[in-house]
């Protein structure tokens, strides 16, 4: 039974399958932790764990060069730390890829007290990277839209996962 | 110490059908081999070549992938080493060119360059095979065995620095196409 107000890991997995994802390059974070067991149990997905988010960009570029369809699963803090790798390895090599990014600090319309959230969308706008916000299962189709846009633009597209607390407590 | 060009000439005779990511040895490698399976990526973002090599090796287990990385790149991304060791691609051959300096920026020393044991770092990260090689004779003797056994293997090669002081805008560009085109062509060839 899933909470309709939340984004369920099953929904995200279904989107990955629908869009032909072969590899998940990821670093754990509180927003997307719940996906791990599902992904690990899937024989069609290969997980590549990294120790710093920027490393995920060049690994994904290599996977793409070899014909795979990788996806990144990281947090907004790590995304911002990875700026040069996103520029060089994903944008520079024209890798069509979706980054699912945990939106740490996102409070919807509340008062933001976390600078990780303050700078997330500003960072993406500065880099010219398209992004979509996903908060619950009703938003899931935006993930497919992101995949389509990545193919069209031959570059990275970000899906911001604005569901920190449902995901963390699952 | 070895000259990178001499070392690559020896390697070329043993390359077989491997995909070669020429990395910091790209300028010399291009004169030895310039096919779709030679990947002169330049420097998309420093520290990332090892990740690219890992990704390509995982994507194409049917192809040997050889990378000529550098000590400066590795030091910037030491965390890549346990990821590579965990994924353990048997087709990945990871060489680094250790010239002890940042050659392309004028030859400033790499931190603690005389004392770092890169093979020990790689072994500590979990590479099953890792070694340091400092001269051409040893390289020539060891190379067939290195390439004959399964990876991942890590080999640190002491090479003479080729310091560049010409302003970047005035340097002769040796790459014939952009990194994105290199990747596009490779994908087309791999099918």
Q: If you average the pLDDT of chain B, what whole number results?
A: 95
- Chain pair forming the biggest interface: A-B, 33 and 35 residues
- Ranges of chain A with pLDDT <50 over ≥5 residues? none
Our count of helices of chain B gives 8
Return Rg of chain B in Å: 16 Å
| Helical content band of chain B | 25-40%
**Separation of termini of chain B?**
40 Å
- Summarize the biggest pleated sheet of chain A: 6 strands, parallel
| SSE topology string of chain B | HEHEHEHHEEEHEHEH
β content of chain A, as a range? 15-25%
CATH topology-level fold name of chain A: Rossmann fold
Describe the protein's architecture and organization.
The complex is a heterodimer of chains A (170) and B (191). Chain A is of the alpha/beta class. Chain A has a single domain (9-169), classed as Thiamin diphosphate (ThDP)-binding fold, Pyr/PP domains (Rossmann fold), CATH 3.40.50.970. Chain A contains 8 helices and 6 strands. A 6-stranded parallel sheet of chain A has the order 2-1-3-4-6-5, with helices on both faces. Chain A is globular, with a radius of gyration of 15 Å. The model of chain A has no long low-confidence stretch (mean pLDDT 90). Chain B is α/β, with parallel strands linked by helices and 191 residues long. Chain B has one domain (4-190): Rossmann fold (3-Layer(aba) Sandwich). Chain B has 8 helices and 8 strands; from the N terminus they run H-E-H-E-H-E-H-H-E-E-E-H-E-H-E-H. A 6-stranded parallel sheet of chain B has the order 2-1-3-4-8-7, with helices on both faces. In chain B, strands 5-6 form a two-stranded antiparallel sheet. In chain B, strand 5 and strand 6 form a beta hairpin. In chain B, helix 1 (4-12) runs parallel beside helix 7 and helix 3 (49-59) runs parallel beside helix 5 (80-87). The longest helix of chain B is centred in the last third of the chain and has 13 residues, at 136-148. The A-B interface holds A 23, 25, 46, 48-52, 54-68, 70, 84-85, 87-89, 92-95 and B 39, 41, 43-60, 77, 79-80, 82-83, 86-87, 179-180, 183-184, 186-187, 190-191.
